[in-house]
Amino acid sequence: MFKRIPTWFFGFITVLAVCLPLFEPTFFRLHDYVHAARIIEIIRALQDGNFPVRWSSNFGYGYGMPLFEFYAPLPYYTGALFYTLGLNVVAAIKMLFFLCSLMTFIGMYKLGSKLFGKAGGILSAVALTMAPYRAVNLYVRGALSEAWGIMALPWVLFGAVQIIKKEKNGWLSLLFGLVVLFLSHNITTLIFIPISILFVIGYSLMTAWKNGHFKKDFVMQLLQLIKVGALYIFGVALAAFYIFPAFLEKDYTKVNAIFSGYFAYSNHFLYIRQFFIPNWGYGGSVWGPDDGLSFFLGYGQLFGLALVLIWLLKAIMMKLRELKLKQQHITVVNQSPTYIFMPVLCLLLMGVAAFMTLLKSKPIWDVLPFMVAVQFPWRWLSVIILFLALLVGMATVYIRHKFLRYIYVVVLSFIIIFTNLSYFKPESYLKNNDDLYFTDANRIRSQMSAILPDYIPKQMPDEFAYNPVGNVVMPAAGVEEKVIEDKVQEKKVQVVTNTLTEINFAIADYPGWTVLIDGKVSKKTQGKIGNLAVMVPQGSHEITAQFRDTPIRAYSDEVSLVAFILFLVIFAIYRYQQKRASYVG
User: Fold this and answer.
1) Are 390 and 396 in contact (CB under 8 A)?
2) How far, in Å, CA of 433 to CA of 437, rounded?
3) What's the pTM?
4) What is the pLDDT of residues 54-63, one digit of tens each?
5) Rounded to whole angstroms, how far apart are CA atoms 255 and 248?
6) In this predicted model, what pLDDT tens digit does every residue of 258-274 receive, in sequence order?
7) What's the alpha-carbon Rg for the chain, to the nearest Å?
8) In terms of C-beta density within 10 A (0-12 exposed, 13-18 middle, 19 or more buried), how is residue 267 classed?
9) What is the Cα 580 distance to its own chain's centre?
10) Strand locations in 268-384, DSSP E?
11) Quick one: angle between helices 74-84 and 35-47, nearest 10?
């Protein structure tokens, strides 16, 4: 128990340093201040019995849009849980910020300690949790989903390392990391998965080489790599209900419009010096080196990196001397490949990520069409700060004296915390949380829709008057209507008309919306603004609009359901075997 005290201590002060602004009674303005609206929209859908939630009825100026089909939903499901447990919406958002920082520290500690021991784990966890780019996401941009995506990265690598080391719990750690990543941030997923595969392959080769029986161990490591690959596929299956519709149905929305103009990636490349300049601001990203927000890597992190590079150079020189002595048939003690291969692997991957933020990488961006979705090349900082934190923690393997190692960890940890502490604060606090973080449906329709137009169905106008709450159908001459049901994914009205009349629902038409007249599916049309409409014959009729699954959504849901059932079966067997082994032992 006492051996864990240093970990608890540094975990407590690091997470406290990051989360101090959350203890203020009021919240703060962020670039993205739509978190409360997203949480309450997902709650409304859940209360209406919808899962997985895809449609938001109040965004899109009250005509709705498939927000949660495309915007990674896990942070907002979690926020909905906190809200349901009795927290107000601002307290729920604060819990999401806190949980993100806590799990980032824990995940990075587990990864670092697995690779370099407890001392290295503490230092790596402090370096990642206190990375200035995390402060940018939390207290400048308000990029909660991206912060959650970063939180998942060390868990993914930790699980993969466990599997390569043939540890029993590795599959759970890896699946946890992957599913959280997939359901938290699409863009971090897009850029990290290829990097993680390269890391896993590199680490596997290092492990085979380290044991001294490369050919024999390579076969064993190949089997472990196959397990990792299978779990990647299993993770995709668990998150299929979100991944596949988000990828395959995006062209039905206006999302492609945000990949041009200001948001075109060509406008947001970095200059190398921006990694080393400690300027800070609460503005936006612009062309050139004078951005309104910072991309600084941190004094403590850069100092730790410099020391690792010096020690690495020394280790390489010693290795060369080792090889020279071997040629002279002089017996020497082999150095662990951890001293050389591991830092080189992390440096290479960090270098790739850093290169992708620079203008020189533009030819690569131009030939990879999917990269347009990243929008901001500096988002690769998510990967940079992960491997930088590993390199900072890696220094502990070069310090053989235990006491000196812990002194180094304590000193550098405090340097990192205190030199970065000033970044983890907002520009200012609100006098009234309700100014920006409200749950009122009418205010979401009128005030939030213009902030988040990305997923409005593409046939709708760029701007149109918002629809007040309660207007299920648009008024029509000579028609009497009575609202019977007004749920997120089902609207029902009783209409009386003297002639064949077009009834216009105040719903943005989108694949899946189906119209029934007196319980029978009828052919739908589109109104003047691209809304859902239907021709209704003379007389009194019950008209229903239902948001149903398309084949893509239905198949994706089935894949996730089967994968989840399979996971429960495997987990039950796994737990049974553990208990049996414990009993026998």
Assistant:
1) no
2) 6
3) 0.93
4) 999 999 999 9
5) 13
6) 777 888 898 999 999 99
7) 27
8) middle
9) 37
10) none
11) 70
